[in-house]
Specification:
With 251 residues, the chain is α/β, with parallel strands linked by helices. It has two domains: 153 residues, Flavodoxin domain (Rossmann fold, 3-Layer(aba) Sandwich); 49 residues, Alpha-Beta Plaits (2-Layer Sandwich). Helix content is 31%, strand content 19%. It has seven helices and nine strands. Helix 1 runs parallel beside helix 4. The protein is globular.
């Protein structure tokens, strides 16, 4: 049986994980909350977004703590460009001693929309076509095919690590408008417990990993970046938001 691990704050990676589960079967786990044992599985499949040509910190931390020789596959998703991210991911996984058999990538709707908006028709087209686009990846994993990325001509690792060093401070540019109802959703969905309520106000600490879950999923659109709320909050419409950041075990 397969174990499918995902990191997602707005649903893209969960959407991919669920499509893989339909074809390959297996259990789906949210990376930050997984505390089990992988020994009972035959293959490990990871689904993660690309952050600035590399891996999100929660994904990287999860991979670094795994101790297994099981066949491992990674399905990356990105909104802009992937560039050297697949090879970077391969190097990281090998550094952690993982038995990497395949690295794949899929275009998904961009959710890092602090500075831009994405056309609705384009988002709908990407989400509608996902089952068809993921089929070949699932079949390759099922057939135990290897897919190791080649070393790219241009390497963006330094740019990734430079940007990554600033992710923790991103929340310093967040504020909360008077529309906030103190519902606590942002506190509950933050993967690093970076958000708290103190004296009737939402407070952001310095452990942000730039997932933008709070920014997009606030019911009141009260979380602002540099004083501005999101123009078009994004949550993947192929998934049930109530299942996001949760485990989905096979029937």
């Amino acid at each position: 049986m397969n174990a499918i691990f995902y990191f997602s704050s707005t649903g893209n990676s969960l959407n991919i994980a669920q499509e893989l589960q339909k074809i390959l079967g297996g259990d789906i786990y949210y990376m930050p909350s997984f505390k089990g044992d992988v020994k009972k599985y035959d293959k490990l499949i990871f689904v993660s977004p690309i952050y600035l040509f590399g891996l999100p910190i929660p994904t990287d931390n999860f991979l670094s703590k795994l101790k297994t020789n099981l066949p491992c596959y990674m399905v990356l998703n990105y909104g802009g460009a992937s560039f050297s991210a697949p090879y970077y991911t391969y190097k990281q996984m090998r550094k952690y001693g993982l038995n990497v058999q395949g690295i794949y990538k899929l275009k998904m709707p961009e959710n890092f929309t602090l500075f831009l908006t994405v056309a609705v028709f384009y988002i709908k087209a990407l989400l509608k076509s996902l089952p068809k686009r993921i089929k070949n990846i699932a079949q390759a994993i099922k057939a135990n095919e290897t897919n190791i990325p080649k070393k790219p001509f241009f390497n963006f690792d330094n740019l990734h690590f430079k940007g990554r060093a600033n992710w923790y401070s991103l929340a310093q540019s967040f504020s909360v408008s008077d529309a906030c109802s103190l519902c606590g959703k942002c506190i509950n969905i933050c993967p690093t417990n970076n958000i708290k309520a103190e004296n009737g106000k939402i407070i952001f600490a310095d452990n942000c990993v730039s997932c933008l879950g709070c920014y997009h999923r606030c019911p009141q659109r009260a979380i602002c970046y540099k004083g501005k709320p999101p123009k078009k909050p994004y949550v993947n419409t192929n998934i049930n938001e109530d299942t996001l950041q949760k485990n989905i075990l096979s029937p």
